[in-house]
Amino acid sequence: MPGFTHHIFVCCNRREPGSARGCCDPDGSEALRSAFKAELKKRNLGPLVRANKSGCLDQCELGPTVVIYPQAIWYGGVTLADVPRIIDETVIGGRILEDLLIPAEKLNQPRE
Ligand code: FES
Question: How far is the CA of 70 from the centre of ligand 1 (A)?
């Protein structure tokens, strides 16, 4: 069995309201991850493409955060409306969505 062509990790971390860093899933609904699962199913992309919920990916200030491996594509500010085009453009089409991309120089910046 080949490995995943795309393994999508969707941050579903929740922090208490008022947290300094914020979080990617403030209402704890995991709606973003559910949307990825539904869109993948609609396109019959399993089992080679998978979306899993993840804990904090440590890019909270840029969230909601999604990372796709093995391509190591980091997307930030992801909304439910972005999910179909992430699947169509990035997963199927192999194109980077520049408006969502977290550039490498912005990843893992020191926190104040
Ligand atoms: S809470 Fe999502 S990256 Fe930290």
Answer: 20
